[in-house]
Amino acid sequence: MTKYLMWVLWPSFVGAGIGVGIIFTLIDPTELIVLGYPLHLSRLAVYTLGFFILWAVCAASSALSSFLQATENQQRVRKD
User: Fold this and answer.
1) Is the pLDDT at 4 greater than 60, yes or no?
2) 1: three-class secondary structure by DSSP
3) How far apart are CA 19 and CA 54, in angstroms?
4) Exposed e or buried b per residue across 29-46, where buried means at least 16 C-beta atoms within 10 angstroms of its C-beta
5) CA 7 to chain centre
6) Containing domain of residue 69, as a range?
7) Which of 11, 25, 53, 54 is the most exposed place for a label (fewest CB within 10 A)?
8) How many structural domains are present in the chain?
9) Which one has a higher pLDDT value, 68 or 73?
């Protein structure tokens, strides 16, 4: 189980770090507007929230890929 978590969480951590770097290079966090209202959060808070949101999205993607690969391997074993 630990190995599976590392396969999912480490690549998603790296992907989230790169994504936050790219996104917040282009966007100033103090100028964000969500649902028509400006965010009244510090830059650090927006960076942190953005990182964790991207990490969750990347982790979901990695977990889905890992799950699909595992089910494909199980089907291949059953056929043999």
Assistant:
1) yes
2) coil
3) 7
4) beeeeeeeeeeeeeeeeb
5) 13
6) 2-79
7) 25
8) 1
9) 68
The answer to whether the beta carbons of residues 59 and 12 sit under 8 Å apart is: yes
What is the dihedral angle through the alpha carbons of 12, 62, 73, 3, rounded to the nearest 10 degrees?
Answer: 40
Highest mean pLDDT among 12-16, 38-42, 68-72: 12-16
The Cα 24–Cα 58 span in angstroms is 17
Structure tokens at 4: 């599976």
For CA atoms 73, 75, 76, 80, give the dihedral sign: positive
Q: Show the tokens assigned to 47.
A: 């960076």
**CB neighbour list of residue 69: distance below 8 Å, 6 or more residues apart:** none
